[in-house]
Design goal:
Blueprint (H helix, E strand, L loop, with lengths): L3 E5 L6 H12 L2 E4 L1 H12 L4 H7 L7 H4 L2 H10 L3 H6 L1 H8 L5 E5 L2 H5 L5 E6 L2 H14 L6 H17 L12 E4 L5 H15 L1
The protein binds cytidine-5'-monophosphate.
The site of cytidine-5'-monophosphate has 14 residues, from helix 2, helix 5 and helix 10.
GO molecular function, one term: ATP binding
Catalytic activity: CMP + ATP = CDP + ADP; dCMP + ATP = dCDP + ADP
Subcellular location: Cytoplasm
Length: 201
């Protein structure tokens, strides 16, 4: 039976980690939809037209590690304002969400646009400084040079672009449960998310 968990929120809010752990916990498939926009952004950096890149995108091409750089993140948030690019990525995400066996999707517009009928909707937030600190630590851990002030500026620029775009802006669905992870450990955030999922099953 299909069961969809939609998790939205700004960059480095903890939504990716929560999504991965929930999927493992319940045996659901997981799609990090940011990777779709990152893949299109990376193609744009190579000179490919973003709409053509979005139409040609194949799930197998989503190499998480290569796409998780600050430059690709900024490119992703630029292609993400183009309505035709978003439309080209819609069917794949919806089909993934309704697969049998359950699915967790995380992004910016899963509860509002991609899966308004999702059984569970979470909106994960944390203040910008906390998110920048987490992203900075994560980049250093992966051996990527990073400067905290730059990471904070990047996160804030992306927040603004994601919230102010007219097509599918970042905002909580009216029926989403909000989870502020600013002062939470991963274990605490996961426990809170599980409690919401268990109440809907
Ligand atoms: O989640 P992540 O930080 O990898 O996403 C990169 C960018 O892709 C975001 O800043 C946002 O502009 C875009 N995105 C989006 N809608 C989604 C997921 C990501 O617009 N569902």
């Amino acid at each position: 039976m299909a069961f969809t968990i939609a998790i939205d929120g700004p960059a480095a809010s903890g939504k990716g980690t929560i999504s991965r752990l929930l999927a493992a916990e319940y045996g659901f498939a997981h799609l990090d939809t940011g990777l779709l926009y990152r893949a299109v952004g990376a193609r744009m950096m190579e000179g490919v037209d973003p709409l053509e890149a979005a139409k040609a995108l194949r799930a197998e091409a989503l190499d998480g590690d290569a796409l998780r750089t600050p430059e690709v993140a900024q490119a992703a948030s630029k292609v993400a304002v183009i309505p035709e690019v978003r439309a080209a990525l819609l069917d794949f995400q919806r089909a993934f969400a309704r697969r049998s066996g359950g699915a967790v999707l995380d992004g910016r517009d899963i509860g509002t646009v991609i899966c308004p009928e999702a059984e569970v909707k979470l909106f994960v937030t944390a203040n910008a400084e906390t998110r920048a600190r987490r992203r900075h630590a994560e980049l250093l851990e992966r051996g990527i040079a990073s400067d905290y002030a730059e990471v904070l500026a990047d996160v804030q620029a992306r927040d603004r672009r994601d919230m102010e775009r007219s097509d599918a802006p970042l905002r909580p669905a009216p029926d989403a449960v909000r989870l502020d992870t600013t002062t939470m450990s991963i274990d605490e955030a996961l426990a809170a998310a599980r409690a919401v999922v268990d109440s809907r099953r």
